[in-house]
Amino acid sequence: MGNELHDILNSSQRIVFFGGAGVSTASGIPDYRSKGGLYDTANQLSPEQMLSRTYFMNNTKEFYDFYRGNMLHLDAEPNGAHYALAKLEDQDKLIAVVTQNIDELHQKAGSKRVYELHGSVWRNYCMDCGKPYDVRDIAEGKEIPRCECGGIIKPDVVLYEEQLDDDVMSGALSAIASADTLIVGGTSLAVYPAAGLVRYFGGGNLILINQSPTDYDRLATLVIRESIDAVLSEVVGL
Questions:
Q1: What is the full DSSP assignment across 130-182?
Q2: Whole-angstrom Cα distance, residue 153 to residue 73?
Q3: pTM of structure
Q4: Residue 151: its pLDDT value, please?
Q5: Which residues contact 218 (CB under 8 A, 6 or more apart)?
Q6: pLDDT at 214
Q7: Selected catalytic residue, list 6, 73, 106, 118
Q8: CB 224 within 8 A of CB 8
Q9: Which end of the chain lies in a sparser environment, N or C, as judged by fewer CB atoms within 10 Å?
Q10: Residue 36 pLDDT more than 60?
């Protein structure tokens, strides 16, 4: 399968990568739905409830207790998958990364054109005056983080019940629609509307790299059930 993927990448000119939580597991960031992931370890309320707009507004202190303990992995470093994708972009083969992750590891590895569908933990802002704040202002506190104006500081992360950013969605959709090869990796394609972006791909090669099945497997040119970190590192030649 590695040779087949290598040949497809060599013949492609407009590759887009669409990834999820599984891309960052090799960097020590737990994913959501596998054993030991966020959905497996959370107690009481579900992650969908605790990471919802309603919970944030009504239980802000509890939200931040959960958020600090489960969503911030500030010491994580990019892994081979991140670096392989940055290398493909440097080779003018990969035109965009579309990610559901909020860790900015793609940018840290060197990727320049990244569409963050769900935002980033590294960006934060006051809900009243809009002043930006560093993530450390949230991570190092124990109470509700507040701006000097008194407003609550909110992560620039798309919570459940919130809409995705129109400009980010438009850019991601345009990139996927113009791709000749779409690599989907580390995602179950179960979270909508983000997962629905795959439907806009009309190119020749749909590559799925995921350790569990997805609803799109039957439509794929190639399905690989291995670690995306290992696969891309080997094929791209890091």
A1: --EEETHHHHT-SS--B-TTSPBEEEEE--BTSPPPHHHHHHHHHHHHH-SEE
A2: 19
A3: 0.91
A4: 97
A5: none
A6: 85
A7: 118
A8: no
A9: C
A10: no
How is the beta sheet containing 153-157 ordered, strand by strand? 132-134, 119-126, 153-157
Note the pLDDT tens digit of each residue in 171-192.
999 999 999 999 999 988 877 7
Please report, for residues 91, 125, 154, the alpha-carbon distance to residue 169 in angstroms, rounded to integers and kept in the order given.
Answer: 25, 21, 21
pLDDT confidence of residue 111:
98
Residue given tokens 């806009």 in the structure block: 200
Which DSSP symbol is given to 69? Answer: H
Write out the two tokens for 42. Answer: 């959370």
Burial 169-179 (b: 16+ CB within 10 A, else e): bebbbebbeeb
Q: At 122, which amino acid appears? A: W
CATH architecture entry for 1-29+77-118+162-238: 3-Layer(aba) Sandwich (3.40)
**Rounded Cα–Cα distance for residues 72 and 49 (Å):** 18
- Angle formed by the axes of helices 228-236 and 2-11, nearest 10°: 60
pLDDT digits (tens, 9 = 90+) for 44-65: 788 889 999 999 999 999 999 9
Domain ranges of the chain: 1-29+77-118+162-238
C-alpha to C-alpha distance for 69 and 94, rounded to whole angstroms: 34
pLDDT of residue 59: 96
Q: Confirm whether 6 is a catalytic residue.
A: no
Distance CA(136)–CA(133), nearest Å, equals: 8
First to last CA, the chain: 18
Tokens of 127: 């809900």
